[in-house]
Fold each of these.
Amino acid sequence: MNLERFIATRVAFSERKSFSRLIIRIAVVAVALSLSVMIVAMAVITGFKHQIGEKIFGFW
């Protein structure tokens, strides 16, 4: 096991309540939330692009 993984598992899954554990959980939730927002934004942009293309090429 490498050193980074050892330290991460020791901090994240420690038995004691620690402030760093809270910060890690907040960071993981923030990354997951921001990733989901980016995916939704890309889906909306793709849908708008498709609709605009249909409206423009619908006249011909």
Note: The mean pLDDT is 88.
Amino acid sequence: MVPSLSVLASLAVAPASTPDADRGAPPPIAVEAPSDMEETGRTGEPAAQEEAVAPPQMREDAHGEEVTPRDVSREARAQEPKMLPEFAPDQGALDPTRAKAPSAPPSTGTDPRVPRLLATVDGYPVDEQAFVANRKKTVIFLPGLQFRNQVGFVSPFRLDAAGNRYTEGVFTQGRLRVRPQLVLGKKGQVRLVGQVDFANGRWAPRSSDDPVVDEILENGDGPQPGNLRAVDFRELYVEYTSQIGVFRLGQMAFNWGLGLLTNDGNNMDRFGDMKFGGDGDGSLNERFLFATKPLARTGGPGKDVIFALGADLVYRDPLASLVDGDLAGQGFLAVRWQPEEHPGNWLGAYAVVRGQKVADDGDVYADDDRLLVGAFDFAGAGSKKLRPKLHLLGAFETVFVGGKATFAADPGEEQRVIQLAAAGRGYVGNPDTWLAGLDLGYLSGDANPYDDEVNNFQASPGFNTGLVLHPYVVAYQSARARIEAENTDLFGVPQNGTQYLPTKGRMTNVVYFHPKARYGLLERAEIWGGPLVAFAPVPIVDPYDTTLGGGTPKNYVGGDGNRRYYGTELDVGIRVRHSYKNLWLMAGVQAGVLFPGAAFRNARGDDESTVWATFFRTEIRY
């Protein structure tokens, strides 16, 4: 009964800008010049007249496809310089080397040359963001307004061995998110970013008529978003791009790789992502960061390598809350290679060390408040053209966590932390219309909550697959397990670390395969889905029922914990969207049906009935 120690750090690896030999500015991004320009020693210099009237030639579009002369005007608009960031687009500094005024602001935004499947985790496309600017584009403001609402229903299922069931009915959740950005300077050297949420969480009902479900909601242990936050200040930081690199200071969130280890809580439910579910809470840190490209002048492969280092005081994540008295500090070092000539292709790694002292949790156990762990995360993504209108897309992330903790140890003892996780995505098709492939992953579990090791890796909130299994069934059953583990009639005193038992919808102890396919129409409508198949790599253990059973592994409903097949879940999603003068409207339905496996059989051997869920989602963004 110990926490997952997977959310250790959130690394905002900003692009480092080092001076080039001639202009004292970051090296430019290789963006093809518009059709009425030619690339010369001075970016954007008009082509000679005799060249301007030369017969148009066949060339390649943004995805490497050959286009005919009649397509050039459309493609030229897509390739127009947009002051794209050099590095992870949603975290990057601005490219100040553009001589021509951009059609989109020099701000955060994804590169239009990167397939949407890979780009959604980093932000919205630059041409889908509203902004206002002065004539010289030395002051640019992006409002970053977003309103979301979800109305959902999940059918009943068993919660425990006593036969209590989840029976809640229709519920609704939502938020109003404001993420304003102010970009200053001729070259966009200074960027001020904020983010605040209003009415973020569960809107209604706030409680349940069922006392068992109501206790889970009252504890805040149900699926997230849970308890309503009227006002939630999430980000406020300043970023300065100098001739030697990028400096960033303030409170910020971050998403690395697939979001398995650290997640910004602002990258889900985006058009084209082929994912299910919504954003998690995200990890927030008070951070100082410096990032640079020390080999930018070499001209070789090293010119695309970014080094970053920094330090954090954790404001809020699944293991710590500064406002509740928890003190957690982190130091990190990161390296990332992202070749300019292949936008969206990258490899990176970072190492993080975290020390933490949690506030008194009010139990009878002394000295159960320390944590010292390190994590290593290796991730990457990329795409390759196989032939016209056929591309291969992929992304991966692997994580190792090790260290020691006393969060759930017996008095005077400590536990070793050893956790592993890996996830990947692989798809083939035309990125703008159809794709087919799969998501897959492994997250370690803990088969023995009473030994001296902590092995259960819990994914960062916001990393999820499927709609029913982990987001709701395992979430509510693990929350019920906490209540039972605190039963003093059985143990005399509550067991240590019970507050870390609820997963709150986070994935753990699972091997999963999720084949999916997608078809999109004119970037305005899409349908996607496929079957999710999931197993537990180690026995599923409920501490209360396992103790009652004399130590034999028992699952959350009192059945055989050695049965590890969670089941098969069929998921499907439909989304449509419309834009009007940078006002984006999106609506969709996501539905899932779980056919539970042997992992949910009770002590009598009864299988769980089919569990289904439906969610209607709407979004307004400006």
Note: The CA atoms of residues 106 and 364 lie 55 Å apart.
Amino acid sequence: MGISKGSSKALCFVVDTTGSMGDDIAAVRSVTSTIIDNKVGTEDEPSLYILVPFNDPDFGPLIKTTNADVFKGYINSLTPSGGGDTPEMSLSGLQLALTGSPPNSEIFLFTDAPAKDEYLKNSVIALIEQSKTVVNFMITNVLGFRRRRQADGNQQQQQSQRMARADSQLYRDLAQASGGQAIQVSKNQLLQATSIITESTSSSLVNLLQANRNLGKLENYTFSVDETVTNLIIYITGSSVDFTLFNPSGSNTSLQVTLLEADSSTVTEVTLVESSGSGQVNGLVEAQGGGQYLVQFDKIPSVEFVVLVKGQIINSTTSRASSVTFQRQSTTSLRASTLTVTVSDVGSVLEPGTPLLVPFSVTTTGDGGNFVIKATNDQGFELTFPSSLTLESGGSANGTASLTAPSTSQSGTGVTLTIEAEAPGGADTNYDVLRLTVLPKVTDFSPPVCQLVSLQSNCSDNCNQSMWELSVEVTDGKNGTGIDRINLREGNGILNSNMTTADGSVTLVSYNASCCSPNVQIVVVDLVAKFLNNKFIIQSFSALSSLP
């Protein structure tokens, strides 16, 4: 949750590219240019840029780069096309972004259509909870208005409005689960609404309070603003919202604070607060030393909740020691579950063309019955699993999923497998996640071999006037996978390499250098060294040596 400055975050966009999204894509281009132009070279510069386009029936690919100009080029190349009917593959695009983004990222999804793949809701929530990622939805126009299939325009408009309320609720549920927002505006208001994106890219952004209500009545919210908060921003979303901001004295006010360096901080309260209600459970805080605290609760909320932390910042930079109260709230919602899903350890490698059997177990501490099983993977690989398991009250059951990557899958592709269990009637759900990497079966366990062919040296006392040259043959053996790269670790000369066989198993290396640089170290790495340790060789040569 953070008190001091954090590291910069990834900037991740998931963008609907259907024909009606021209204005939205233009807004994405504008906000991207603003962030890159204003924050590159500062502490708030994004550490990573990620883009996932989607429409129907396609989504992806996931584009990831650390180069701001390259990312700007990708954004500028987005072209709205097709569409005309809804819904779109928005959750598939979001799932791909969640599996490809680092933990604690913030994702912005732009669309004007409902989700065609709403069956992925629980899988997406599972990835949100695991990665602690915040997801914001930028929704333009009333969802469902792109449908134009009925002759009766009034009837169609009424149906679309009903669909809009139900469809946008899915996005609101996902935003709430992640601690994000679902902002619905007209297309000409979108550019103004994107200010949330530029504000959220701060490396020191913290969350003080977040609440979700649908009460239609007056309610008060209290939160503490400590001296480390330099720019307080309050977002209020909804319809017909009236609000007034008061300071503790009871008068409405503006806020100006100064950042002071805190010597230490102490946690004094930890509370579990219902995400959509006013219920809360207080914990007993015990300091463990080293900035660690153990918090014990006699119960936990039966609905989704967040963690609210309060404490004191002790500051002794002035002539007298002082303290100030701080509070921080987790973004991602948590929930208690009577279910446990456990995926067995099957390693982290998925061999192309070969089914990987993934055993898993489901345990309940509640009532038994028929539990629905769902499994998804973000690459769309062939996947089979039991549709249900029968559990007794307080019991467990085992199942096996089978995942197969196509034989043509690119080596190094990451795959995220999510297995979910749902209690009878949908009263409870839980999940487990397995991350795999597609790799071909390894038969090459030997390092490359470096054989000296020739070494010619005419070095004299005046090294600036003479050169020496080296010729080496590099092979990867009969069962080798081939040479991946050849680099210099030591030496200031010129290194050239040419493969002499079609399979890349034999490479001829030449090296030329001044006699003032008489030593060279050549590093040879084969193709499997990317995934195995000690699959390379370092060979040293010297102009002062002679052939054996």
Note: The chain has seven helices and 28 strands.
Amino acid sequence: GNIAGIAIAVVLGGPGAIFWMWVIALIGAATGFIESTLAQIYKEPIAKGGFYGGPAYYIRYGLNNKALSVLFAILISITYGWIYNSVQ
């Protein structure tokens, strides 16, 4: 689990392993913050009171690249539909 994994990393890699865990955690937090911010900026309201949005929307409208947003949607569908299921 989380405690054993950190203990093994410190034993095998030394105390520098904790530093790199923090660095990766900060990068992951920054990525999550940016994705959440872009999702709020590029969401579109719908008539029923909800919103449409997500990565494909901010790729399409933020980068002005429809082909890349379609490619993202196709690849994420393949990944969640087949690849993740094959791991189980």
Note: The mean pLDDT is 91.
